[in-house]
Amino acid sequence: MNKTVFDGCPPTSELSDHPLLNDDQALSLEKTFKMLANSTRLRILHVLAKEQEICVSDLAKALDMNATAVSNQLQRMTDWGVLTSKREGLRIFYRIIDPCVISVVNYAWCLTQCAEIREDENNLQVDTEANSQLLIQKLVS
User: Fold this and answer.
1) What digits encode the pLDDT tens for the residues 50-98?
2) CB atoms inside a 10 Å sphere around CB 78
3) What is the DSSP track for 13-39?
């Protein structure tokens, strides 16, 4: 089953320029996020983004996982139209056919890193405020 690789994400306008999502659009968007909301699938996508194309056994080895579990997730992403596969002898190779999925994962990773930085800054600020209060108490007493 070979599908054509998209040249890129379809041109879109800013989310703020779109009319409000209707129920069907929101559910479709929810399905996309649910597909990505799985640590195994995210790890598989990361390997595929790095390797371009890889067979199930090599992917399972790279992830230190059972080939059957990896194959199950690969089939799900193929069914969703994110991946395509090709058979060469006894081996099946997978690759990403929808580059938008990598863009979404990249943005999500950016959000995650920014959230971690904000959390660290908030913890530092709380620690600094606590230390300042302790210093003031020592000076007063």
Assistant:
1) 999 999 999 999 999 999 999 999 999 999 999 999 999 999 999 999 8
2) 17
3) --GGGSPPP-HHHHHHHHHHHHHH--H
My answer on whether 59 and 37 are in the same domain is yes
SS3 for 96?
strand
β-sheet with 53-55: strand ranges across = 53-55, 91-96, 83-88
Q: What is the pLDDT of residue 18?
A: 83
Query: Is the entire prediction scored with pTM above 0.85?
Result: no
81 lies in the same domain as 108: no
Q: At what angle do helices 56-63 and 39-51 cross, to 10 degrees?
A: 120
Number of compact structural domains in the chain:
2
User: Is the same domain home to 61 and 84?
Assistant: yes
52 and 119 inside one domain:
no
